[in-house]
Specification:
The protein has one domain: Glycolipid transfer protein (Glycolipid transfer protein, GLTP, Orthogonal Bundle), CATH 1.10.3520. Helix content is about 65%, strand content about 0%. It contains 9 helices and 2 strands. GO terms for molecular function: ceramide 1-phosphate binding; ceramide 1-phosphate transfer activity. InterPro entries: GLTP_sf (IPR036497), Glycolipid_transfer_prot_dom (IPR014830). It comes from Coniophora puteana (strain RWD-64-598). One of its GO terms (cellular component) is membrane.
Length: about 200
């Protein structure tokens, strides 16, 4: 697996039981996803990073204040429904949308080796967040897409071992990244279906 993915919690390692997706482990993996935008190394992604980081914090605060009723993401959402603000429910909803955007973008890049990141992230945005954004926010994302680094430079950062280890095997790298993305996609799809079934996003 690529050195970067060896340094963060993988979505493939997030426990999922009949009760739902483990909240703490999911949050740990989500922080690893946040680091991808740091590797993109563009100030244009600051609004995206800030949004994801803020939504992680909303869910994390709910978990820390109510660990007994928030062990899984599903339990967290269900147990917040009697409250007026539903801050964590809203935060998780937008976090999932941001994760869907990132996942779709990287899956597009993985499926098209000659595709530059600007195109991959544009496709990811069009298939996820765009329908939820107003004109102003769409403009912010449009600027960010154009500011994506070259694919080659970004992938080199994903593969490079900060400690100066041996070169990453290409097949092993792709296997690790694909597994990470497939697991993320599965969790996002599961929670999106959960939100739709319970109509938990209504009014948020």
């Amino acid at each position: 697996m690529a050195p970067y993915f060896e340094t963060v919690k993988s979505f493939a390692d997030v426990p999922i039981t009949d009760a739902g997706v483990d909240t703490k482990e999911f949050l740990d993996a989500s922080k690893g996803l946040l680091g991808i935008f740091t590797l993109l190394n563009s100030s244009a992604f600051a609004p995206v990073t800030g949004d994801i980081e803020g939504n992680i914090k909303k869910v994390e605060e709910r978990y820390n204040n109510n660990p007994g009723s928030s062990a899984t993401l599903e339990q967290l959402v269900i147990n917040e429904q009697g409250e007026k603000k539903k801050t964590a429910t809203q935060g998780l909803m937008w976090l999932l949308r941001g994760q869907s955007f990132t996942c779709k973008a990287l899956q597009s890049a993985q499926g098209n080796p000659s595709q530059e990141l600007s195109e991959a992230f544009t496709k990811g945005y069009e298939g996820s967040l765009k329908k939820h954004h107003n004109f102003v926010v769409k403009g912010v994302f449009s600027v960010a897409m154009k500011a994506c680094p070259y694919r080659k430079d970004f992938y080199e950062k994903l593969k490079t071992d900060p400690a100066g280890g041996p070169p990453v095997d290409e097949a092993k790298f792709n296997e690790g990244l694909d597994q990470w993305l497939t697991s993320l996609e599965s969790i996002v799809n599961r929670l999106e279906a959960f939100y739709a079934k319970g109509d938990y996003g209504k009014g948020l």
